[in-house]
Amino acid sequence: MTANKLPPAIFLMGPTASGKTALSVQLAQQLNAEIISVDSALVFKGMDIGTAKPSLEERAGIPHHLIDILDPAESYSTGAFRRQALALMADITARGKIPLLTGGTMLYFNALYHGLAQLPTADAALRSELEAEAAVIGKQAMHDKLALVDSVAAARIHPNDPQRVQRALEVYQLAGKSMTQLHAEAKAEEIPYQKIKLIIAPRDRAILHAKIAQRFKLMLQQGFVAEVDALYQRGDLNADLPAIRAVGYRQIWAYLEGEMGLEEMQEKGIIATRQLAKRQFTWLRREDDAQRFYTEDLPVYERVISEIEQQLGRCQNI
């Protein structure tokens, strides 16, 4: 099947607080689409306020997938997301609808587009050896070792990030191939869809920063602390779990532990959310085959739907 005959799939990306949720529902209503969440926090049950999880009313009858599928005590991997998302996309397509994937976990989008490298699982004995070696020769020397076997990874990983340096060295020793080579091999696997890639974001970063602060304060008013406290009181969760490490949750968890006051918690929660948005923008700059739309350029919905319909029309007319 040629690229132009592949079924369409829409990918709506953007930083946190950019308006993706409301826009995705509008698009799904117009296009007979179903939404697949691309968000590492929305998968968890009982985490609604802090994740800005769309309510049933906000979903407007549109099926939303990969929301509320795990208990916060569980973990969710990028590989699990990719497998489940591809299965959902195939099912939605088979029913004559369009899969619309939206969210801000850019690692998940990247895994869908480019495949997922099959990295060896951690080896406790080897990791201990590498940690002992690092204690003797230092971080820079370990980074120099990595540069000899995987110069691309060494250029990407800072010497002051010893965990990632050691993981890259561990992968090389276990697999006999560098992490860069394993990722390159995974990228050969293309998904069988005509990808319609869209990015929605403010042109002015200050606007997003203000919206993030406003939204975090609103979440606190809506009961965000009580939501995290309910998780805290369970007794079987801890600060190292992926769910509790989510932005906002880890700051409130620290507040409940007595590590900071209410005002400091709010400030750190806003800062952490802005840092998340910065990381998302870094990923989004690499999406050179995506159409970009700015929230300031009204009307956004009309411009986005027009672009999608043009791409769908080109596909159908070829």
Q: What is the N-to-C succession of helices and strands?
A: EHEHEHEHHHHHHEHHHHEH
Overall CATH architecture of the largest domain: 3-Layer(aba) Sandwich
* Protein structure class: alpha/beta
Under the CATH scheme, which class of the largest domain?
A: Alpha Beta
Number of helices: 14
Largest sheet: 6 strands, parallel
Q: How many beta-strand segments? A: 6
**Rough shape?**
globular
| Average residue pLDDT | 93
Strand order of the largest sheet: 3-2-4-1-5-6
> Could you give the distance between the termini?
13 Å
CATH superfamily of the largest domain: P-loop containing nucleotide triphosphate hydrolases
Radius of gyration: 21 Å
Uncertain parts: none
Give structural notes.
The chain is of the alpha/beta class and 318 residues long. It is built from 14 helices and 6 strands. The chain has a 6-stranded parallel sheet with strand order 3-2-4-1-5-6, sandwiched between helices. Strand 2, helix 2 and strand 3 form a beta-alpha-beta unit. The longest helix is centred in the C-terminal third of the chain and has 24 residues. 34% of the residues are buried.
